[in-house]
Amino acid sequence: MNIGCDTMELSVLQENLAKGLSIVSKAVDSRPNLPVLGNVLLEADDARLRLSATNLEMSITCWIGAKVSQPGSITLPAKTLSDLVANLSPERVDLTLDTTSQTMRIRCGATKSNIRGIDADEFPSVPTGGQNDVIVPGTVLKEMIAQTVFAAAKDEARPILTGVYILFEGDVLTMAAADGYRLAVRTAKIDSNFAEPFSMVVPARNLAEVGRIISDEDDEVGITLPGGRNTVMFHLRNVDVSSQLLEGKYPDFSAIIPRQYRTQTVMYTSDLLRACQRAEIFARDNANSGRIFVKPPKAPGEPGEVVVLGRSIERGDNEGMLDAAVEGEELDIAFNIRYLIDVLRVINEERVVFQSNGKTEPGVIRPENRDDFIHVIMPMSVNS
Amino acid sequence: MNIGCDTMELSVLQENLAKGLSIVSKAVDSRPNLPVLGNVLLEADDARLRLSATNLEMSITCWIGAKVSQPGSITLPAKTLSDLVANLSPERVDLTLDTTSQTMRIRCGATKSNIRGIDADEFPSVPTGGQNDVIVPGTVLKEMIAQTVFAAAKDEARPILTGVYILFEGDVLTMAAADGYRLAVRTAKIDSNFAEPFSMVVPARNLAEVGRIISDEDDEVGITLPGGRNTVMFHLRNVDVSSQLLEGKYPDFSAIIPRQYRTQTVMYTSDLLRACQRAEIFARDNANSGRIFVKPPKAPGEPGEVVVLGRSIERGDNEGMLDAAVEGEELDIAFNIRYLIDVLRVINEERVVFQSNGKTEPGVIRPENRDDFIHVIMPMSVNS
Question: Any chain A CB within 8 A of the CB of B227?
Fold first, then answer.
């Protein structure tokens, strides 16, 4: 006889459970303030198991197919459950909750586990669902995130800069990130029409997580914009991610984007990236300062060239020469070479354009033949 | 005019240089006491470049093919050189030494580097060559090392136990390692005949490095036994490794190897390994103590079984049941489950034998149908 025990009971495939746990675990703090925040919430309804985790700033929910005999809910320690499931055979996993002892019994083949949980009532509420105010193709959103998040500030000196600014205006979606030394701005046309511009600032680390979770299966990602709440939600095929927003006014960055140039050069992205990686080995000792020399062609019809130089007073130096199509004036300028590496890694186009108005002016890096991505980097001072 | 500058000058292939540097770099301390110990010694002779590194306890030398125009030698910072070479194109690399400034100029394609070095005279002498007192097939030596080094002590409480005991006696090579809780002994027939037994104790971390370097190319590894010196040398095809020996008397371990058993069980190695990995997830909270129950068949012709149990008072438990061929008495015994995982990972045979004389006696783990590897583990106390 079953006295007041609603035993949650279901079966799932090990692969699905392992994959779901690996997705939601990213929202679990390694040292949570409350024990229950180190847990994953499991909720079984009709034919699905819902897994949720939250660090209060971000929450991730993932649904996986399940054969549910008895609906119910419990929270279980995230690391223990993930480690165990990752080590089970690729077979059916049967889960049965003993509600009296709050213990989940997990069977798979000849292995039986009991994991002690915490009541689901103690878990913070994790928002899911909501209308799709905007729909963005998954591949586009993934690239937009990759091309901006890295430029957000890592330190908390100006908290608003640790976020990515997202603007909906007409049928254009804009994402921008800046840390005071560099600025990344990416735009995309979307199938929407915002009569009134709408903007928000999403913590970069949460947005980066959304980018990592978007998979080839997610042809469309729905976004629920914050209404009265301070929360944005991203809806993937079987995953919902919600993130708190950063409060405050994002600085107006459009003024610092140069509108013309005195020197422009076009190079192969991979050549420039490799030259920067070699220069960086030496620039480490020198505040990462690497020097770029742009040499216009000596005569019409001849090629121009770009030289990238990294120098360590103690250890030595590296100088790489690249073929380049150069227009305009000769240039000798210094940049944080790691910032160049960061942006060149996400350019995703064969050739890259570098524009400058001189050694003290911000430089522009952008993919060739595309006007939807622009990266601005402040130069460092050159001791010549 | 070249005034008193013997400019070392040579060309090598980037792949070869990168591979050689990755091998010798393992002997470079990350925080060397002397700056020159953070460097790699480069010596060019007829048609080879010799690369050497040492932390004074171990040295590794690697020879790579080179086109040498001008022999010479220099030491260069290991990390800078490795990082640079790893980032060069897979082409010819030209090296030219400016002996006046002790600077190596490195050219590869359109990239030029200058790396400042330290005079080769300041580098400690690195022994190479010497006669092959013993020759052991590379695959055999690699397996012997893998099956013993992990059991050596990690802490320095008894320094001699941080080494691997190596004994040559007649035509048998024996390696043994122990840390007070477990013992691994591996033997092999070799093509030698030691009339007088000869033994030495090699630091386990150095021997592990030898094991890692041995590749499929090394069908034979020569060993130069320490003569007057306190150093053993391993000669691979293009690599020499020398290691200091540990001084002191290695404890006599043969007495603790059980010669019979009251319970024996044969299991699939991978089944037992996976059961231990699952149990370990919970045993972490319990000094890694996992429990093994051996149940003989209830009636003749029926199968026996083995149950592996890991338990955390706070988080829960896992119990895995395995089919097993059981002979002898029922058994309930506890082991450090990580020790079981360590040995099961290097068993390299489909089935494993576990023998015991009771819950307080050392247990034996060995591959089925092989008498050249034996592993002894002390049990933990069982609270029943």
Answer: no
pLDDT band per the 50, 70, 90 thresholds, residue B46? confident
Report in angstroms the alpha-carbon separations of A241 from A45, A79, B125, B129: 20, 20, 60, 62
* CATH H-level superfamily of B9-122: DNA Polymerase III, subunit A, domain 2 (3.10.150.10)
- pLDDT tens string B194-247: 999 999 999 999 999 999 999 999 999 999 999 878 999 999 999 999 999 999
Interface test with A, best of B101, B115, B337 (most A CBs within 10 A): B115
Residues 45-74 (A) with a CB less than 8 A from some CB of B = none
Predicted-complex ipTM score: 0.91
Does the beta-carbon distance from B116 to A320 stay under 8 Å? Answer: no
Q: Is the pLDDT of residue A6 over 70?
A: no
For the stretch B123-161, pLDDT in tens is 999 988 889 999 999 999 999 999 999 999 999 999 999
pLDDT exceeds cutoff 90 at A119: yes
Average pLDDT over residues A255-276: 96
In B, minimum Cα distance to A108 occurs at B320
Q: Is A319 on the interface with B (CB under 8 A)?
A: yes
> Is residue B86 within 8 Å of residue B4, measured between CB atoms?
no
The CATH superfamily holding the domain B257-377 is DNA Polymerase III, subunit A, domain 2 (3.10.150.10)
Looking at CATH, the fold of the domain delimited by B134-254 is given as: DNA Polymerase III; Chain A, domain 2 (3.10.150)
Q: Which residues of B touch A281 (CB under 8 A)?
A: 80, 83-84, 87
